[in-house]
Amino acid sequence: MTLAPRVIGTVVALLVIGGAASAPALGAPPSTSVLEVRTVPPLSGMRFTLDGRRFTTRGGGVARITYSGGSPLRDRLHGVATVTRPGVRASLARWYGDLDRPRQTRLIAALNVDYAIDFTFENLHGQRIDPTRVEFLSLRSSPGVITEAQAASVSGPLWLQGVRVVSTPNGPLAKDVLQSIERVRVDGANVVNRAQQRFFPRKQRAFGITLLLYSARFAARDALFGFPIGSGVRLRHPDGRWTYHPFTSSGKLVVGGLARGEYWVEVKAPGLSFLRPVTLSRNQDVPLEVLSYVDIGLTVAILVVTALGLLYIGRPHLFSFLGVLYPKRRGGRVAGRV
Predict the structure, then answer these.
(1) Strand 106-122 to strand 77-80: parallel, antiparallel, or no bridges (unpaired)?
(2) Which of 11, 13, 141, 298 yields a CA-CA distance of 20 to 30 A from 47?
């Protein structure tokens, strides 16, 4: 009768000891892992967050952080857009690796890298053009991304993608992005040829854009006598704006820095000067003729004399009041004739 309680007590004690051995010790830290993130392209200074904790890549574009298991990394790991150094910024494009696992030791972060580009503008002779004349700038990258800048931002640095990552059979590969100048608008006209000027932002942080600006040489002459006439010309630009340009003493004028496109011109002169279209696609001489008041008066006089002459030849009796031109008849004969 006394053996049974002893056996029961021994079994209970063994169960308690076994349960205590199998249970984790109170306060023991959960298991941790080390995550290594490598960027493509290798870029130091790129920031990431894991469970709200920030960590940054060092030399070679590698960053490491310890973390505990739990939910999948996709919901916990993020890339932070970062200016890694002056004029260079990076943003996360995609991850290479299994983010659906709660534990992962190595991941590759593919980055888009942008560069701050300073633009200058020059004419066909290499002379600088005031950037405030540029109203609009448009570029297209080799992946097909359009970047547009309005007048307010053209004079400052423009952020452009210079590196992107593509997938290859050997893994992710960083490639340079080519940027092409699509449009530059000056005075309402496009002054570049599409995709003719191109550059790599990673290699060239400043780029000079050549604008198709031309000169027009105006000279106004009297239509009949050819003498210089007029005080200047009024010029209608492609954007609809009118400008006035005075002649020199010789009746000539050179207007430079004109955007290629359609213009209208008229001479300010005493007489008749009609609006004339001018298509500017090169440096051009534009002769202008004015029908002056002298020409108008002379033309009217010639027309009147011609009309009277024809009338006299056809109907001379209408001029009987002019005795010299049409003498009176006397006795059936014309006076003064024998």
Answers:
(1) unpaired
(2) 141
Q: Give φ, ψ of 199 to 5 degrees.
A: -160, 165
CA distance linking residue 110 with residue 132, whole number of Å: 38
Q: Which two tokens stand for residue 129?
A: 């053009």
Do 144 and 177 meet the contact criterion of CB atoms below 8 Å apart? no
Contact yes or no for 222/290 (Cβ under 8 A): yes
Phi, then psi, of 71 in degrees rounded to 5: -75, 165
Beta strands 171-176 and 158-168 are antiparallel
The continuous run of DSSP H or E covering 204 comes out as none
CA 45, CA 61: separation in Å to the nearest integer? 8
Q: Is 109 within 8 Å of 99 (Cβ atoms)? A: no
Which amino acid, one-letter code, is at 75? D
Q: How many CB atoms lie within 10 A of CB 268?
A: 17
**CA dist 121 → 6, 128, 209, 292 (Å):** 101, 6, 5, 42
What does the radius of gyration of the chain's CA atoms come to, in whole angstroms?
45
Per the structure block, which two tokens stand in for 251? 């009746």
Q: Evaluate whether 67 touches 101 at the Cβ level (below 8 Å).
A: no
CA distances for 35 relative to 61, 66, 97, 102, angstroms? 14, 6, 12, 11
Q: Give kind and range of the element (H or E) at residue 284.
A: strand 284-292
Question: Around Cβ 149, how many Cβ atoms within 10 Å?
Answer: 19
What DSSP designation does 1 have? -
pTM: 0.74
Q: Could you read off the pLDDT of 153-175 as tens digits, one per residue? A: 666 789 999 999 999 999 999 99
| pLDDT tens figures, 262-321 | 999 999 988 888 899 999 999 999 999 888 777 677 777 788 777 777 766 766 766 666
Place of tokens 């014309």: 334
Instruction: Locate 242 and state its tokens.
Output: 């009118």
Instruction: Give me 142's structure tokens.
Output: 């080799």
Residue 221 tokens, joined: 């002459």
Tokens 């209408």 found at = 318
Taking the C-alpha atoms of residue 121 and residue 245, their distance in angstroms, rounded to an integer, is 24
